[in-house]
């Protein structure tokens, strides 16, 4: 097996994006376009993966610094052939090279594998696609034998050639020696005065190298992103595809067109996801989980039979089986609900562990806290975890009851079975089974009368 190198072209300006950001760094489903290309292509690379940069080169090199890539700069954008020529010195001379575009994000690994499999010493491979509306793309011109003869760019095409529906995707694979042989022969005598990589095809045929084609089944797999409208359309297509995969996996989506997944989502049986739910990062939902409308889950794990009511945000947290969260709850990173827990409206938690059956039903902040089993936290309870400099822990034992509108000044421990009276500020530990309260005595003023309205002077 010869070495497979990969070249990803990403030097173009992306003028039509009207952006200061390099085009291939724009996001599709929460990941930069070029990351999608890398996800498909890198596993096929046994040599070097070379990214050709130009416009926004530094930005791109910085964003991809952690990836196993080589960057080459194309100083002037003189066309796709010139871009590949810039990468040539970084390639293994006796290997195979796969050329990809950074702005064609949905290319699939299986397609690229097919392409690589078609490369021999006497044959290169080109990925094409049939488009009902081919405008903007290079057309594939075939000889009467059916063999590929050339690619003609739209600007240079005759009316007859423009009627061809088979178009160039830009993706191709060939032996590096062939590239070395043919690239220097490419000129710039065309409508744009650029060095077109597509001219390689006609030159290959003239030099006795056959051109095999692989057809992409789905046009969106090879759709390029040139402007924000195309990006938005591709995002919807991608989301719909993910939604369909979830439906096939047995989840119900109230509206597959109003579902967004920017990451991964594993689902159990009979999951129900209402409209406008957004998932980011890696999420897991158990069996019979219900997610209400307008929820936002980021790296969340939700156990069997749990119900997440509408407008709830769950980040980097675990919701145990049978728990009910929301509406309008916010679980911040480090929240762990054991099981059968209840978190109600306008409750914020952070780094908080709740034992089985514990409840925080209304209007509370519980952070840096460990609650035992069956704890009941009344409305308006605040764990005062921050003294302005450091964070401190609150520990509440099994079965404790925290009366409404209490402030628990951490570090503080409330013993198992203890009760805190409503409206208390608790700054000292409370022993198990005790009642603690810090409440001014209520008094009734004898003989008090409501003031009466006086006439202005
Ligand atoms: C190109 C193809 C066309 C094909 C279409 C598919 C050529 C001449 N035309 O046209 O046949 O149907 O893609 O999407 O190849 N780039 C560089 N350096 C340059 C020029 C471009 O790195 O000097 C990069 C761009 O950043 C982009 C890719 O190459 O990632 C394609 O360039 P673009 O200008 O978008 O080509 P198209 O006109 O779309
Ligand atoms: Ca393009």
Automatic annotation (TrEMBL):
Subunit (UniProt): Homotrimer.
Primary site of residence? cytoplasm
Alphabetized, the UniProt keywords read: Acyltransferase, Cell shape, Cell wall biogenesis/degradation, Cytoplasm, Magnesium, Metal-binding, Multifunctional enzyme, Nucleotidyltransferase, Peptidoglycan synthesis, Repeat, Transferase
Region listing for N-acetyltransferase, in residue ranges: 250-457
Cite the EC number. Answer: 2.7.7.23, 2.3.1.157
Gene that this sequence comes from: glmU
This protein's pathway reads: Bacterial outer membrane biogenesis; LPS lipid A biosynthesis; Nucleotide-sugar biosynthesis; UDP-N-acetyl-alpha-D-glucosamine biosynthesis; UDP-N-acetyl-alpha-D-glucosamine from N-acetyl-alpha-D-glucosamine 1-phosphate: step 1/1; Nucleotide-sugar biosynthesis; UDP-N-acetyl-alpha-D-glucosamine biosynthesis; N-acetyl-alpha-D-glucosamine 1-phosphate from alpha-D-glucosamine 6-phosphate (route II): step 2/2
In which domain of life is the source organism classified?
Bacteria
Protein known as: Bifunctional protein GlmU
Q: Does the keyword Repeat apply?
A: yes
